[in-house]
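User: For my dataset I need records formatted as: sequence, then structure tokens, nothing else. Please produce one.
Assistant:
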Amino acid sequence: QVQLVESGGGLVQAGGSLRLSCTASGRTFLNYLMGWFRQAPGKEREFVAAISWIGGSTYYADSVKGRFTVSRDNAKNTKYLQMNSLKPEDTAVYYCAAGPTIGTMSYWGQGTQVTVSS
């Protein structure tokens, strides 16, 4: 059974930082992208960042470039999303996902809430 388990969400003031983690189990993801998405209240889920399991190529939404950094630890089957200079508009439920492309994620975590206060 494939599982993606997120952790690290919480409440932070604007300008602060959080690091999200996502640990994968149940299969190998060697040819997959490991992505982060978010969904704010009343809005559609949107892409945030992704990293390839092999090679470590990274991809970012324009709204988070320069503030967020995605990384992975293959030995731990874990990926991370370091979020700096957080803004109130970053408030959302953040989901980790895995799939062959950004637009075709096959597996999803349960989500973790990130709230940024002004």
